[in-house]
Amino acid sequence: RLLEGVIDIYMPDAKYGREEIARTLSDAPGYPALMQEAILEMQRQVGDLVVRDGVAEQGLIIRHLVLPRELAGSDLVMQFIGERVSREAYVNIMDQYHWNSSVSSPDFIEKYPGFEALLRGITEEEYGYAIRCARKYGLHRGF
After folding, report:
1. d(CA 136, CA 29)
2. What is the CATH number of domain 9-135?
3. Taking CA 36 as the corner, what is the angle to CA 123 and CA 56, rounded to the nearest 5 degrees?
4. Cα 46–47–49 angle (5° rounding)?
5. Which residues, listed in sequence order, are joined to residue 62 by a DSSP beta bridge?
6. How far apart are CA 75 and CA 86, in angstroms?
7. Every domain of the chain and the residues it spans
8. Cβ distance 90 to 142 under 8 Å?
């Protein structure tokens, strides 16, 4: 709220839709609820994205990075945006996830058992699923 009237365009990340994944992978307990609260406040302040002559002037652009095996909870994120933010919300569904090879695979698997899918990039099917989720909830701007 401190930035109300100061910021023209907000571009938040909606990283996780599931509490347990946010807590496990990012040590971010409460992330989905806090993310939703913040995005709703940003939407209240600036509204849907306004583009004039190809230039974004004001509004909200929500970014969502697709993760392997639907670990980002794309369905829940798109449901939140479509049902609680706005069906006119501009959503950037990103497909560029890649494994950080500076972390050894055995160390990662030991620390995060059950999350081996993160050792690879996303598939076309996984990205397509996120797009279908967005459309299912009436979203049509961005992607």
Report:
1. 28
2. 3.30.750
3. 75
4. 95
5. 91
6. 15
7. 9-135
8. yes
pLDDT at 16 (0 to 100) = 98
Instruction: Give me the amino acid identity at 6.
Output: V
Distance CA(102)–CA(138), nearest Å, equals 39
**pLDDT confidence bin for 108, thresholds 50/70/90:** confident
CB 4 within 8 A of CB 45: yes
Tokens, residue 24: 């496990």
**Against a cut of 0.70, is the pTM above it?**
yes
Q: Residue-wise over 65-86: b if at least 16 C-beta within 10 A, else e?
A: bbbbebbbbbbbbbbbbbeebb
Least Cα distance to 85 among 25, 5, 20, 142 occurs for 142
Amino acid identity at 88: E
Enter the tokens of residue 139: 């979203």
